[in-house]
Amino acid sequence: MASLKHLLGIDGLNPVSATNLLDLAESYALLNRSGKTQRDSLRGRTLINLFFEDSTRTRTSFELAGRRLGADVVNMSVSTSSVTKGETLLDTAATLNAMNCDLLVVRHKSSGAPALLAQKVGASVINAGDGTHEHPTQALLDALTIRRHKGRISGLTVAICGDIAHSRVARSNILLLTMMGNFVRLVGPPTLVPGSIGVNGVEIFHDMEEGLKGADLVMMLRLQKERMSAGLVPSSREFFTYYGLDRKKLAFAKPDALVMHPGPMNRGVEIDSEVADDAARSLIKEQVEMGVAVRMAVLDTCARSNT
Questions:
Q1: Is the pTM of this model over 0.70?
Q2: Whether 126 contacts 6, CB under 8 Å
Q3: Which of 33, 61, 232, 270 has a CA that sits 20 to 30 A from residue 187's CA?
């Protein structure tokens, strides 16, 4: 595989490097399911999870991935660190450099923070979500999940629905899915779907029936009220009425259409529990499982590029 020292966004990949990561992740998924999870490819390496925003799912996934590869894993609790005492991001970078860590997984509320750290530290930096910019490993695990069920990751119609405007998951998925030759539809109210998305292969819909018609996959997004200004959504109940995924709306998609959600879910807001828990249609639990495999592949690849 070609060198990949950092993973800061999907725009740092191409179809070949993305496919290589998915192929490696598939091998780790099979290994994890076999129960033979302990490897030594990262033995003697140190992984630091630096999360400035809470995310139990992503942080735990990276921690588990690192430990399964034999790395020494350190979780830095930013809420109790010097950052809350006024330490700047560059001060943090200097401290991390002094620790001589090999891999640094960063989640930050500010877009571009992981890229800034990548310029200042010797470690490989992996973006675990920065502001409303990107969340590349989420897009990769979504792609792996799709490929496992559809047999391919090209030529598919994927409807991404809900709060597009505030979603770094949506941005990474748009970049990856279009790069791999899929057709992406963005579905949601005008206040939550930016009209400035100028990516080939992307269509915008404000009606669920039109947006889901003929879709192979329906990817719902969390309504991120913590990032919103007032008035973007009248009420959760009204949002669910028009844009929440239930059986009736899912029927607009293809009969074999599958359902995804990056989590955490707001049941009864963006998705109905009956749909979310449908073992025949929902891939949500498998997305979590594939997250560990994808993050193992990313850590392994970046570590080999940073020797």
A1: yes
A2: yes
A3: 61
